[in-house]
Amino acid sequence: MNNNHTNMYDELTSKDWTTSTNDESELSLIRYDEPPTYETFIRDCFLPNRPALFTAKCDLMNQWSCLTDWLNEDRSEPNFDRLSELYGSMTVPVTKSSSETTEYGSDENKLTMSFDEFIQFWRNKETTGEYYCKDWHLQKMSDQSNSLFYSVPIYFQSDWLNEKCLAQNEDDFRFVYMGGDGTTTPSHMDVLGTYSWSANICGRKRWRFTKPHSIEFIQEPGDILFVPSQWHHDVTNIGYTISINHNWFNAFNIFRIWQHLCLTLDDIEQRIEDCRAIMKDTWYEHCQLILQTNEGMHFASLYKLLHTIAHKRMEEPNGEYTKFDLWIIDKLIHDMLRSTAFLSAFDFGTFPQRPKALLKQIHSFIEKQKQ
């Protein structure tokens, strides 16, 4: 066993994961010009929930096929004709934006069109700043037999959200963004308070973090940005811009996701408190349905995700990080079982495995690993 990994496991399991606080002494953006070790990234970014920029000097994209397939020879701009050959007939999600657009995710600005139609707007100087292809599930929509046109850097590979989505053939949270000069994403927090990472294939982006701390910077071509959980931000593209983005969570921020769901549920319950007497026995269930509609996840779907990840870890153990994942899942399920809303809203008999049975299986697995 690697002593460094063992020390890291001891350090992680001694932390109070039920309290989400940022280290107030670490407010700045970390810039890596050389790839750090994974353990260094854990200490620099995961533990304090701190942003980081891997500059192009880290060379994390050097083997990505999209650099040659999507860009012109000097890799400074998109190769529009080649992109049209590859994806022209596909239907893509497009947001029509303007300088007046300030509300994130406004449905009235969302369109769908063929990628060829989008390219016409994108390469036209008069409309390039108005139409933004966002949240495009390109890899999911492409032939699944094709390999990824990029590879996920090691720092972001522990990704419970997309691991579960891909295992169950659900819509994933892996996206391609393509936009012209001036296209923007208004201020927002990423879905569920997840982490995100964003790799700039070409063009530049002006990022502005506004909460919990204010930071503004430019992301250059070849840079990859790590966005911590629950950090509000807005983004403006400079020039023809392409990026690959993932939303994700793992053992390091799963308690933040749980706490976000709990706070959102509290708000839902307060808003419809006057209906409680009418609903009687279905009150908790109805609140969970609203939570699922608003957030894309409720307590039961979170539990089912934990169940999926726990079984995958027990089927394919991978050293101390498997042990840490299971340790965190165990702690979170115990926390969930103290929730009246979780206990009242769901019939555990409909779950793939009852929570206490899963906990017993996790404990048995961990004990066997010690032998």
Topology summary:
Blueprint: H1 3-13, E1 30-32, H2 38-46, E2 52-54, H3 66-70, H4 80-87, E3 91-96, E4 110-114, H5 115-123, E5 131-136, H6 138-141, H7 160-167, E6 174-179, E7 184-188, E8 195-211, E9 215-219, E10 224-227, E11 232-248, H8 254-271, H9 276-279, H10 283-295, H11 299-315, H12 319-336, H13 340-345, H14 355-370
Parallel strand pairs: 1-2
Antiparallel strand pairs: 2-10, 3-4, 3-5, 5-6, 6-11, 7-11, 8-9, 8-10, 8-11
Biggest sheet record: 11 strands, mixed
**Any idea what the CATH superfamily of the largest domain is called?**
Cupin
Helix-strand sequence = HEHEHHEEHEHHEEEEEEHHHHHHH
> How far do the termini sit from each other?
14 Å
CATH topology assignment of the largest domain: Jelly Rolls
Overall 3D shape: globular
The CATH class of the largest domain: Mainly Beta
Strand content: 15-25%
Please tell me how large the radius of gyration is.
22 Å
Which key features would you list for this structure?
Jelly Rolls, 2 domains, alpha+beta, eleven-stranded mixed beta sheet, 14 helices, 371 residues
Structure characterization notes:
By secondary structure, the chain is α+β, with helices and mostly antiparallel strands. The protein has 2 domains: 23-248, Cupin (Jelly Rolls, Sandwich); 254-370, no CATH class. It is built from 14 helices and 11 strands. Strands 1, 2, 3, 4, 5, 6, 7, 8, 9, 10 and 11 form an 11-stranded mixed sheet that branches. It is globular and about 60 Å long. The chain starts with a helix and ends with a helix. The relative contact order is 0.12.
